[in-house]
Amino acid sequence: xxxxxxxxxxxxxxxxxxxxxxxxxxxxxxxxxxxxxxxxxxxxxxxxxxxxxxxxxxxxxxxxxxxxxxxxxxxxxxxxxxxxxxxxxxxxxxxxxxxxxxxxxxxxxxxxxxxxxxxxxxxxxxxxxxxxxxxxxxxxxxxxxxxxxxxxxxxxxxxxxxxxxxxxxxxxxxxxxxxxxxxxxxxxxxxxxxxxxxxxxxxxxxxxxxxxxxxxxxxxxxxxxxxxxxxxxxxxxxxxxxxxxxxxxxxxxxxxxxxxxxxxxxxxxxxxxxxxxxxxxxxxxxxxxxxxxxxxxxxxxxxxxxxxxxxxxxxxxxxxxxxxxxxxxxxxxxxxxxxxxxxxxxxxx
Amino acid sequence: xxxxxxxxxxxxxxxxxxxxxxxxxxxxxxxxxxxxxxxxxxxxxxxxxxxxxxxxxxxxxxxxxxxxxxxxxxxxxxxxxxxxxxxxxxxxxxxxxxxxxxxxxxxxxxxxxxxxxxxxxxxxxxxxxxxxxxxxxxxxxxxxxxxxxxxxxxxxxxxxxxxxxxxxxxxx
Lengths: 349, 172
Ligand code: HEM
Ligand code: FES
Prior knowledge:
The complex is a heterodimer of chains A (349) and B (172). Chain A has 349 residues and is mainly alpha-helical. Chain A has helices at residues 3-12, 15-22, 28-31, 38-57, 67-76, 81-108, 117-139, 144-158, 164-172, 179-211, 219-224, 231-256, 281-287, 295-316, 328-348; strands at residues 25-27, 228-230. Chain A is built from 15 helices and 2 strands. Chain B has 2 domains: 19-56; 62-171, 3-layer Sandwich (Rieske Iron-sulfur Protein). Chain B has helices at 18-21, 24-51; strands at residues 62-67, 77-87, 90-101, 110-113, 124-126, 131-133, 140-142, 147-149, 158-159, 161-164, 167-171. Bound molecules: protoporphyrin IX containing FE (HEM) and FE2/S2 (inorganic) cluster.
């Protein structure tokens, strides 16, 4: 350890924990399989979102009168505004994609099985919080898109039987969309969600270190399981390279296609067709199939069923078998959901 | 009781204070009780605070939609309104759009809120088809606001309307 390092270690006691974190033994089947990078990549994109989000907050004006102009200013006038908002905008989609892919990885590798139930459950919450980030962030520019999507989005909550109205008014901070809505979406997006997400990620990763990675599912992987490399630099470097690639893509997207901003929110416009962000489109499409009295099926029963089955999964699928090709029920269920989501999204595009 | 759970201290350092430890259970119970009560109190107050005045019914007010002279009887018109209203803690120009028509040569007007009763998109009047269509999930409403097809559970909302000094007004 360098002199400076030793000086700090003697005063903070951090040397040991940091070293054991970095020297953590990573089995070969993990280090050599790119699918295991997805969790780390999700973490990197979250860090990028936090960084660009803090920067945006220096110029964003959370008022119905000023929000639109401040976002317009960031996007078109402010030096590097296009870049910071662009990364944050495209990064939001990237985070949803990566979180979903990472979940599929752990799902198909049966990583949710005992003793990793809490790892999976914190993951489920992380997925829904990530979606909540998207939902609350969409409104903040206070443009037509965000305004109308939120109008419809909160009304979906409003169609829940019995408690729907209360739920909708709580989300809006009143009967209609207005300043109270923007303020609470802002507070949720920049304070409540980041703090909760960061805390959950800490629990998630502590679980991971406590249990170690779940066992390999292939024969080849099992053979590589006996050989280890230290977490730093081997695994970290893989993720860092992938992270750099992702950053390059985000910068490229920001430079070629400015993050969109529609006309300012206009409650009196009748020709604007609300559309949610692309990752909610499948749900929006599904609502079309449950007219009138059947609506609660789509707004309550199906989401509850999906959330419930995700929560219960590790307590139902308790067998030893981890190979997806030997577990037709879970595999077919996942493939079914994937097909439905892809098809519905395509139909709504 | 709980002494047994405590690892003995390094003798060079000292020993557990046995006298103090007799009160350990009492202190633990007190600590957790007070902490729970305060936590529940903070969360309760916090929830009430966050709810704010979300549940206050929205205030109604009469808005002007324009001179009836311009609203030819028999036709469906799209009218905009705008009025000063309180939005949370600030005064704003509240805006919206309504549909209106008269079937008795302008003596009375029917005023409909164009907000689709399904999920709140704004329906569009299609003169050619003589109906309102919702762009979101293809709902169709009759000229009078009744659901013809699609997911909406209720007809379009009808507003109270009156004519004052030749000006059509509606209560939103
Ligand atoms: C903000 C979102 C998330 C972050 C930052 C994150 C981070 C991570 C990281 C760094 C790993 C280790 C590397 C890897 O397996 O790829 C991991 C593992 C894991 N994650 Fe996540 N994760 C997130 C969301 C989720 C979600 C949505 C789920 C599932 C619902 C989930 C379930 C798991 C499980 C079960 C493991 C253990 C994998 C094993 O032992 O093989 N995570 N997570
Ligand atoms: S919002 Fe009008 S049909 Fe769904």
